């Protein structure tokens, strides 16, 4: 079978691997579509582990079922989550599913960007979801990233009437902005330097779309559209320290800054504890998602409250994966990139 093998952003290969054998409780899933994530081209994260087989947003068709599997059948269209928690450990009981040792240990083999994927028994038990009729495989690739956004919105603790600023109008930023409005935000603002993404945000009905390169301080633009106030919530989607620093500078008193993407291990964020203390600023992070969020994400997509057609802009066949990775690394006029079987 064909699978994507990652060495670097400029060295992505499609190689031949044996079709995985499955054991009791497992599934063999034939990949139909798999989204690409910004983390797939985060070289500080990817290259030290290379060569590796990426892809953590796959959708497919059940090709074989292991002994003891009764809840899924051959031919069924399914979403498969790449990591799953145990649900009983200390971290899971606190809702910190991504800190669970089982979550860190479970993974798809070889990865989501392969013609066939072995889904381990814990994943089958905990977070493989049958796809409803009417939801395309392509649209369903958004379940995993949307679940991450659902978790991010939860951790930001957005309240009705809050004024929310999103830094970054990529696909995640746009989903976060829509979820913030659905959560009851009074006003949602989004910032991005790329004109194409700003235009897509306008088309999606975001209240205020700001250009950080328009001249003058960004805080002045924010104040101008936010009745002279700083936002209550700032959602930071870029992984750069400068974006995180900007989030802390822009948030209002009693507000929350949520970090939605990781910086490199060596990066250091300068924080003034005195300001955080006297202004009661909350600094939070959100990493990945668990079974509760994937089910909520599926429902949001099924009901059309989040529309895949607004977010998926480019499609590549598996054989053209190298081109897809280059586009995600240098997005320009692109939002979500999906690789489809073929």
Structural topology:
Layout: E1 2-8, E2 11-16, E3 27-35, H1 43-46, E4 58-65, E5 77-80, H2 90-93, H3 101-105, E6 116-119, H4 121-127, E7 128-130, H5 137-140, H6 143-156, E8 163-167, H7 171-182, E9 187-191, H8 195-203, E10 208-210, H9 218-225, E11 233-236, H10 241-250, E12 256-259, H11 273-278, E13 282-285, H12 291-302, E14 312-317, H13 321-329, E15 336-340
Helix pairs in contact: 6-7, 6-12
Mind explaining what this structure looks like?
The protein has 342 residues and is α/β, with parallel strands linked by helices. The chain is 30% helix and 23% strand. The protein contains 13 helices and 15 strands. The protein has helices spanning 43-46, 90-93, 101-105, 121-127, 137-140, 143-156, 171-182, 195-203, 218-225, 241-250, 273-278, 291-302, 321-329; strands at residues 2-8, 11-16, 27-35, 58-65, 77-80, 116-119, 128-130, 163-167, 187-191, 208-210, 233-236, 256-259, 282-285, 312-317, 336-340. The strands form 3 sheets. Strands 3, 4, 5, 6, 7, 14 and 15 form a 7-stranded mixed sheet that branches. Strands 10-9-8-11-12-13 form a 6-stranded parallel sheet, sandwiched between helices. Strand 14, helix 13 and strand 15 (336-340) form a beta-alpha-beta unit. Helix 6 (143-156) packs across helix 7 and helix 6 crosses helix 12. The longest helix is centred in the middle third of the chain and has 14 residues, at 143-156. The N and C termini lie close together (11 Å). The mean pLDDT is 97.
């Amino acid at each position: 079978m064909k699978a994507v093998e990652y060495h670097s952003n400029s060295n992505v290969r499609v190689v031949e691997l044996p079709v995985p054998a499955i054991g009791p409780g497992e599934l063999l899933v034939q990949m139909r579509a798999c989204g690409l994530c910004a983390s797939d081209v985060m070289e500080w994260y990817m290259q030290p582990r290379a060569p590796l087989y990426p892809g953590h947003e796959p959708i497919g068709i059940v090709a074989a079922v292991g002994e003891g599997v009764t809840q899924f059948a051959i031919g069924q269209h399914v979403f498969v989550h790449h990591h799953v928690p145990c649900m009983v450990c200390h971290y899971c009981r606190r809702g910190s599913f991504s800190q669970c040792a089982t979550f860190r240990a479970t993974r798809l083999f070889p990865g989501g960007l392969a013609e066939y994927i072995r889904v381990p028994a814990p994943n089958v038990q905990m977070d493989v979801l049958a796809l409803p009729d009417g939801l395309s495989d392509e649209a369903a690739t958004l379940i995993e990233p949307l679940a991450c956004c659902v978790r991010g919105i939860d951790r930001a603790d957005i309240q009705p009437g809050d004024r929310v600023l999103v830094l970054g109008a990529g696909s995640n930023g746009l989903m976060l902005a829509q979820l913030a409005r659905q959560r009851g935000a009074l006003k949602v603002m989004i910032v991005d330097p790329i004109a194409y993404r700003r235009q897509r945000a306008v088309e999606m009905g975001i209240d205020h779309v700001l250009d950080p390169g328009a001249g003058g301080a960004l805080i002045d633009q924010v104040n101008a559209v936010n009745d002279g106030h700083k936002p209550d919530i700032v959602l930071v989607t870029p992984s750069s320290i400068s974006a995180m620093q900007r989030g802390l500078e822009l948030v209002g008193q009693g507000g929350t800054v949520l970090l939605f993407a990781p910086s490199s291990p060596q990066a250091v964020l300068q924080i003034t504890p005195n300001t955080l203390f006297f202004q009661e600023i909350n600094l939070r992070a959100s990493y990945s998602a668990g079974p509760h969020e994937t089910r909520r994400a599926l429902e949001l997509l099924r009901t059309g409250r989040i529309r895949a057609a607004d977010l998926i802009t480019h499609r590549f066949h598996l054989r053209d994966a190298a081109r897809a990775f280059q586009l995600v690394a240098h997005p320009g006029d692109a939002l979500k990139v999906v690789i489809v079987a073929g």
